[in-house]
């Protein structure tokens, strides 16, 4: 398998993996590869670039995921991403939402591999950072492995060397994005076969992976593993990543130490005018599995308390930890 900084990554997730979420993940793991939410080319070329692209150096390494299907627009957006300091430009060929389809990008691009190849080439021509593609294994009723094999082969000819494979089909009509993450069956063997067929490429697997033991099993077959919702709802799952998959020797921060860093971060962000709840919402799963976590979450979800921007809310929430939930009830 390739030695890659993407051995473990956190998926780009709309409305979730913003800079506050990434900052939290970075407190827990120094090496996990992080992604932005998908940013459309239109948002960058006609909108507020700093709002979409600004991030703190402490978050790095971070990859920018773009949504689009016009090679020229993607090239301009990719160039912006490199200028703002991103370590990778990733093209979304996996999102099945109807809103994304109306923009003629996301998973429907899998039906146009030559267009994707043209997009990749246009971006590679203007940036020096890696240009990668995140995709599904099929679209609608196309179940044949040859479909994804030919898709990857066509884009690899355009110079793409890294493919992130969400190992499910995308159903473009009739299923919501949430259902598309749950109903089409996972076929990890398709991703494994891609690695066997294209040993020179870096293949990263994504979809339904919840534990670091599962990560280890997948790494027997592919180069990297991308965690999605598990890393969001249970962020402390990342605590052992650095030692286990990157050879780090320092001890991971405890949950309490992560919380202390988070409080410092909240203080600096509040001073910039950030709403406390915009940060804290990403940390509600920090104590998942710890007695009293439900009470901790409840306090930190209270909009009236959050509106006061008083960091004493963390002291109040912490009083619930290690109190068995049945006592709280």
UniProtKB/TrEMBL annotation:
Annotated FMN binding sites: 12-14, 65, 134, 166, 206-208, 228-229
Cofactor(s), by name: FMN
Enzyme class: oxidoreductase
Reactions performed catalytically: 5,6-dihydrouridine(20a) in tRNA + NADP(+) = uridine(20a) in tRNA + NADPH + H(+); 5,6-dihydrouridine(20a) in tRNA + NAD(+) = uridine(20a) in tRNA + NADH + H(+); 5,6-dihydrouridine(20) in tRNA + NADP(+) = uridine(20) in tRNA + NADPH + H(+); 5,6-dihydrouridine(20) in tRNA + NAD(+) = uridine(20) in tRNA + NADH + H(+)
EC number annotated for this UniProt entry: 1.3.1.91
Pfam families (UniProt xref): Dus (PF01207)
Annotated GO MF terms: oxidoreductase activity
Keywords: Flavoprotein, FMN, NADP, Oxidoreductase, RNA-binding, tRNA processing, tRNA-binding
Signal peptide residue numbers: none
Database matches in InterPro entries: Aldolase_TIM, DUS-like_FMN-bd, DUS_fam, DusA, tRNA_hU_synthase_CS
Annotated site (Interacts with tRNA): 92, 178, 181, 294, 297
Active-site feature positions: 95
Domain spans labelled DUS-like FMN-binding: 10-309
Record family assignment: Belongs to the Dus family. DusA subfamily.
Function according to Swiss-Prot or TrEMBL: Catalyzes the synthesis of 5,6-dihydrouridine (D), a modified base found in the D-loop of most tRNAs, via the reduction of the C5-C6 double bond in target uridines. Specifically modifies U20 and U20a in tRNAs.
Cited PANTHER family: FMN-LINKED OXIDOREDUCTASES SUPERFAMILY PROTEIN
Protein name (Swiss-Prot/TrEMBL): tRNA-dihydrouridine(20/20a) synthase
Organism: Paraburkholderia silvatlantica
Lineage: Bacteria, Pseudomonadati, Pseudomonadota, Betaproteobacteria, Burkholderiales
Name of the gene encoding the protein in the UniProt record: dusA
């Amino acid at each position: 398998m390739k030695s890659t900084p993407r051995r473990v990554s956190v998926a780009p997730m709309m409305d979730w993996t913003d800079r506050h979420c990434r900052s939290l993940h970075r407190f827990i793991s120094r090496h996990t590869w992080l992604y932005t939410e998908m940013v459309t080319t239109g948002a960058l070329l006609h909108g507020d670039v700093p709002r979409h692209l600004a991030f703190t150096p402490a978050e790095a390494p971070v990859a920018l995921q773009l949504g689009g299907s016009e090679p020229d627009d993607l090239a301009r957006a990719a160039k912006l991403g490199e200028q703002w300091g991103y370590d990778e430009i990733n093209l979304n060929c996996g999102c099945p939402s109807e809103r994304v389809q109306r923009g003629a990008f996301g998973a429907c691009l899998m039906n146009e591999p030559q267009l994707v190849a043209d997009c990749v080439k246009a971006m590679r021509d203007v940036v020096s950072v890696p240009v990668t593609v995140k995709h599904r294994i099929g679209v609608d009723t196309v179940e044949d492995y040859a479909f994804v094999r030919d898709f990857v082969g066509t884009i690899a000819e355009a110079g793409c060397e890294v493919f992130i494979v969400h190992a499910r089909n995308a159903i473009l009509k009739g299923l919501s994005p949430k259902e598309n993450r749950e109903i089409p069956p996972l076929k990890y063997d398709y991703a494994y076969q891609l690695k066997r067929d294209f040993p020179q490429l870096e293949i990263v697997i994504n979809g339904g992976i919840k534990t670091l033991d599962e990560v280890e099993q997948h790494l027997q077959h592919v180069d990297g593993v991308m965690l999605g919702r598990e890393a969001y709802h249970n962020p402390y799952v990342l605590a052992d990543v650095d030692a286990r998959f990157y050879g780090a020797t320092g001890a991971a921060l405890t949950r309490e130490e992560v919380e202390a860093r988070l409080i410092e971060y909240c203080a600096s962000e509040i001073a910039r005018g950030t709403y406390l709840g915009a940060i804290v919402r990403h940390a509600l799963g920090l104590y998942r599995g710890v007695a009293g976590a439900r009470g901790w979450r409840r306090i930190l979800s209270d909009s009236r308390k959050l509106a006061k921007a008083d960091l004493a809310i963390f002291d109040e929430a912490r009083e619930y930890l290690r109190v068995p939930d049945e006592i709280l009830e």
